[in-house]
Design brief:
Keywords: Cell membrane, Disulfide bond, Glycoprotein, Ion transport, Membrane, Potassium, Potassium transport, Signal-anchor, Sodium, Sodium transport, Sodium/potassium transport, Transmembrane, Transmembrane helix, Transport. This is Sodium/potassium-transporting ATPase subunit beta. The chain is of the alpha+beta class and 301 residues long. It has helices at residues 7-14, 27-58, 93-108, 244-247, and strands at residues 15-16, 21-22, 25-26, 75-78, 85-89, 121-122, 146-147, 173-178, 207-214, 226-230, 234-236, 256-260, 269-275, 291-299. The chain folds into two domains: 16-54; 75-299, Sandwich (Immunoglobulin-like), CATH 2.60.40. It has four helices and 14 strands. The strands form four sheets. It has a five-stranded mixed beta sheet. Strand 2 (21-22) and strand 3 (25-26) form a beta hairpin. The relative contact order is 0.18. The structure holds 2-acetamido-2-deoxy-beta-D-glucopyranose (2 copies). One 2-acetamido-2-deoxy-beta-D-glucopyranose (NAG) binds at residues 191-192, 200-201, 203.
């Protein structure tokens, strides 16, 4: 269209009454174009709906069909507020209240009083033991029992005696869990090769060990002793496999509490915690796959 055309020319282009054309095309040709698009998009919608229907047919209520997270479980920690940072002042209760509040809410899920029902919970070995098989995912056996996990196992990090989880004494606790993956059986490390030497003593049968250490070389002499609570300071196999939300609604993940008992104050320290196992991987891009970093700073004033 040339710019010189006057208004009449433009109007004539849109609707040419002489030729009975709308934007240069006759009514019949507009009908064909419309019909083409209706049929085209109709087919597209049909293919879309059909694909979803077929997908839904192949999905089983209980067993995840599409699961891309079988091998590498995430490791997560509480408290985790912004930027995986634990920074507070010993003198200021209000500076650590958000952390202790998060911890309190988290461990309350593990209250003994919530695990009384014998139709939902059962006692499992107190020491690391083999996987607790409860049938297969599709054997119609219904809801499975969950192993009890008492918060008293977390000792000084249980929040039962010290409501501040060590924060008030400059010995903060962090509670760690492995994220749930349906039907996943974590395998303990079969050799010490890929494990830092300091973590070797933590390797034992039927246990996925958790080990935390300084992330930066220069913090090596500043993080002090780290204590571990839970079942032998790791994730014991009797809590696996997990059968999923439908079949295992009362499932409790085993916990490990990590207490930093002698951190150097008034400086930022970087800690890395890692789990070790033959089918546990780490990923440069996913900072929570099998490990996590934590920044801690405790101020004395
Ligand atoms: C790993 O090291 C620990 C401590 O030295 C030892 O007790 C354990 O047997 C070793 N495990 C393997 C699989 O070599
Ligand atoms: C705590 O760490 C300091 C050095 O940072 C050390 O001198 C002291 O002995 C440690 N205390 C305990 C109880 O380990």
């Amino acid at each position: 269209m040339s710019g010189n055309k006057d208004d009449g020319g433009w109007k004539k282009f849109v609707w040419d009454s002489d030729k009975g054309e709308f934007m240069g095309r006759t009514g019949g040709s507009w009908f064909k174009i419309t019909l083409f698009y209706v049929v085209f998009f109709g087919c597209l919608a049909g293919v879309f709906v059909g694909t979803i229907q077929v997908m839904l047919l192949t999905l089983n209520d209980f067993k995840p069909t599409w699961q891309d997270r079988v091998a590498p479980p995430g490791l997560s920690h509480t408290p985790k507020l912004d930027k995986a940072e634990v920074s507070y002042s010993i003198k200021g209760i209000e500076t650590y209240l958000p952390f202790t509040k998060t911890l309190r809410e988290f461990v309350s899920q593990y209250d003994d009083s919530k695990q009384l029902d014998a139709s939902k919970f059962e006692n499992c070995p107190a020491e690391p033991a083999d996987y607790k098989e409860r049938g297969t995912l599709d054997d119609n056996a219904g809801v499975r029992k969950a192993c009890r996990f008492s918060r008293t196992l977390l000792g000084p990090c249980s929040g039962l005696e010290d409501e501040t989880f060590g924060f008030k004494d400059g010995k903060p606790c962090v509670i760690v869990k492995l994220n749930r993956i349906v039907n996943f059986r974590p395998r303990p490390p079969s050799s010490n090769d890929s494990i830092p030497e300091e973590a070797w003593p933590k390797v034992q049968p039927n246990l996925i060990p958790l080990f935390c250490t300084n992330k930066r070389e220069e913090d090596a002499d500043k993080i002090g002793e780290i204590k571990y609570y839970g079942i032998n300071g790791g994730f014991p196999l009797q809590y696996y496999p997990y059968y999923g939300k439908r079949l295992h609604p009362h499932y409790l993940q085993p916990l490990v509490a990590v207490q930093f008992t002698n951190l150097t104050q008034n400086m930022e320290l970087r800690i890395e915690c890692k789990v070790f196992g033959d089918n546990i991987d780490y990923n440069e891009k996913d900072r929570y796959q099998g490990r996590f970093d934590l920044k801690i700073q405790i101020n004395s004033v």
